[in-house]
């Protein structure tokens, strides 16, 4: 099997998992499609550079790459296109039916974390996402929310405790 065929099989096997993962964390189907494409582009670049040959779980590896792409896009306030340019891939525009299909595919997966997050108060959810997903320091979160660091720490702690409780109850 050639490199193109191997990548095609790898993409078919893992693209839906990555798309669901990304779509559950970003605001639009277009961003989810872009970040999914960037995730696979970054994976190709990593393999070309000699990384990823000892990966036991392709989906987990790709989701880790996707997580970094999501965090980078939040930090920068825009989607990174470096990997796509490096591979000389053209940007494609999604049709309305593509956007609808992405949203349906992403919604079709059972995601206990998403429903557990919705059970948190808005301030707890914001604190948990800022600290855990975006990896911001307590001082940064406090400044952004106009709260003290102690309050932010308490919100994160309570939010994480409620998430553990909600997810545990949902999985039983």
Question: Can you tell me about this structure?
Answer:
This protein has 172 residues and is an all-alpha fold. It folds into two domains: 3-108, no CATH class; 112-171, Arc Repressor Mutant, subunit A (Orthogonal Bundle), CATH 1.10.10.10. The protein is 74% helix and 0% strand. The protein has helices spanning 3-23, 29-48, 58-76, 82-86, 96-108, 112-118, 122-133, 138-145, 149-171. The longest helix is centred in the last third of the chain and has 23 residues, at 149-171. It is elongated, with a radius of gyration of 18 Å.
Number of structural domains: 2
DSSP helix count? 9
> What percent of residues adopt helix (DSSP H or I)?
over 70%
Q: Please describe the biggest sheet, giving its number of strands, its sense, and whether it closes into a barrel.
A: none
How much of the sequence is in beta strands? under 5%
Number of strands: 0
The whole-angstrom Rg is 18 Å
Low-confidence runs: none
Give the end-to-end Cα distance, rounded to a whole number of Å.
43 Å
Give me some keywords for this one:
172 residues, elongated, mainly alpha, 9 helices, 2 domains, Arc Repressor Mutant, subunit A
Task: Provide a compact summary of the structure.
The protein has helices at residues 3-23, 29-48, 58-76, 82-86, 96-108, 112-118, 122-133, 138-145, 149-171. The protein has 2 domains: 3-108, no CATH class; 112-171, Winged helix-like DNA-binding domain superfamily/Winged helix DNA-binding domain (Arc Repressor Mutant, subunit A), CATH 1.10.10.10.
SSE diagram, text form:
Elements: H1 3-23, H2 29-48, H3 58-76, H4 82-86, H5 96-108, H6 112-118, H7 122-133, H8 138-145, H9 149-171
Helix pairs in contact: 1-2, 1-3, 1-5, 2-3, 2-5, 6-9, 7-9, 8-9
